[in-house]
Design brief:
Ammonium transporter fold; mainly alpha
Length: 448
């Protein structure tokens, strides 16, 4: 009897195994472990290419864009500001900025990163980047350099607000301090486990971190510095709009690295961000051009290139969350609204925002950040990135909260830094230097 029972049990187990082979759903095997994340050469190549494109946005892109818009006597000082900012912030980013922005900050992680990567200590050749607990398929060195180019261009954008009147020494100190005190914390808030990211704020490539941040800082700087000598009386027309057009064109091309590169992978989402970026820029250029044509009677070169940049700014937070149709809507809105802010609002406020840093980047960033909450769709960004048109109206309020937090910290911290510098080494050149031009007075060079 015992032998018979054993035989029956054995036969039953054999039959059960056979059925499991036929119907895997009946098998009780443990789920397979997720494959380990490994380096993807294609992703790495794309992000390195994007890094070069974003660096090109500052030098020579922004340098030429701003340089062509100032008077001839200040063109070298203007391009020098972009170039020097690139060098200064690069070193600050390596020493401290990257660690504060992208490493875990312990008990203070909601507000600031830690110090584990001071001087990039511990970053190995084979180490993959890990951001907010997610391991990427690119080396940490590549990710660090990609983010460095964002840290570089953000303070460089501010220089447009105080063109023609800040001491070069003051500018150097301000850029170093601002990148640590203002940029790195806000980057952490949004992208590296900080409270804005946890709140659900959508900022794909820097609407809050880069553009609202820089635009508000520019507005504060313009107010603190005061108007240029002769503002409203002397002719202060751009000296070479060909330079500015070339600069804007380089910005447009470089922005593909800025937005599509933020996918940190060569995938379909990067391709969609690429398309959204281009369509928003085109729509905004046409929006500004048509608004200017209707109101002033003639479409200007300065207007159409400013419109394109406004569209690129506005689509930055949205690029990885919207379809091209949403990007066109965002671009059109940014083109018209930024035209109004750059031509009417700053005069109403009586502020000499020399090259419209706030009018284009601040206002454009606000428009784009809020409208991201309207046009974001789960088909692009996933279920956690749905906006008003995809059934999540609450996302608009979350976006506004992100904007307000950025405006408050950037505005207050920038004001404090500028006042400290003014009380110590002084912010502004004297009137004689300003009338002579900063090129010769500060750098001993002139453009023939």
């Amino acid at each position: 009897m015992k032998t018979s029972n054993k035989a029956l049990i054995g036969l039953g187990l054999a039959l059960l195994g056979a059925v499991a082979l036929i119907d895997p759903a009946m098998a009780q095997d443990a789920p397979a472990a997720a494959p380990a994340v490994t380096l993807d050469k294609g992703d790495n190549a794309w992000v390195m290419t994007s890094t070069a494109l974003v660096l090109m946005m500052t030098i020579p892109g922004l340098a030429l864009f701003y340089g062509g818009m100032v008077r001839k006597k200040n063109v070298l000082s203007t391009v020098m500001q972009s170039f020097a900012t690139c060098a200064i912030v690069s070193i600050v980013w390596m020493v401290l900025g990257y660690s504060l922005a992208f490493t875990p900050g312990g008990d203070l992680n909601a507000y600031l990163g830690g110090f584990s990567r001071l001087f990039l200590n511990g970053m190995g050749v084979a180490d993959l980047a890990t951001v907010n607990g997610t391991t990427l398929t690119i080396p940490e060195s590549t990710f660090m350099m990609f983010q460095a180019t964002f840290a570089i261009i953000t303070p460089a954008l501010i220089t447009g607000a105080f063109a023609d009147r800040m001491k070069f020494s003051a500018m150097c100190v301000f850029m170093a301090l601002w990148s640590i005190v203002v940029y790195s914390p806000i980057a952490h808030w949004v992208w590296a486990g900080g409270f804005l990211g946890s709140l659900g704020v959508l900022d794909y490539a820097g609407g809050t971190v880069v553009h609202i941040n820089a635009g508000v800082a520019g507005l504060v700087a313009a107010i603190v510095m005061g108007k240029r000598v002769g503002y409203g009386k002397d002719v202060m027309a751009p000296h070479n709009l060909v330079y500015s057009l070339i600069g804007a064109s380089l910005l447009w091309v470089g922005w593909f690295g800025f937005n599509a590169g933020s996918a940190v992978a060569a995938d379909g989402r990067a391709g969609m961000a690429f398309a959204a970026t281009h369509m928003a820029a085109a729509a905004a250029a046409l929006g500004w051009m048509l608004a200017e044509w209707m109101i002033k009677g003639k479409p200007s070169v300065l207007g159409v290139i400013s419109g394109a940049v406004a569209g690129l700014v506005a689509v930055t937070p949205a690029a990885g969350f919207v379809l091209p149709t949403g990007a066109v809507a965002i671009g059109l809105a940014a083109g018209v609204i930024c035209f109004w802010s750059a031509t009417s609002l700053k005069h109403m406020l009586g502020i000499d925002d020399s090259l419209d840093a706030f009018g284009v980047h601040g206002v454009g960033g606000l428009v784009g950040a809020v409208l991201t909450g309207v046009f974001a769709v789960g088909a692009v960004g996933g279920d956690a990135a749905k906006g008003l048109i995809d059934g999540n109206p609450g996302q608009v309020l979350i976006q506004i909260e992100g904007c307000l937090a950025t405006v408050i910290w950037s505005g207050v911290a920038t004001l404090v830094l500028l006042k400290l510098i003014d009380w110590t080494i002084g912010l502004r050149v004297d009137q004689e230097t300003e009338r002579e031009g900063l090129d010769l007075a500060l750098h001993g060079e002139t453009v023939p």
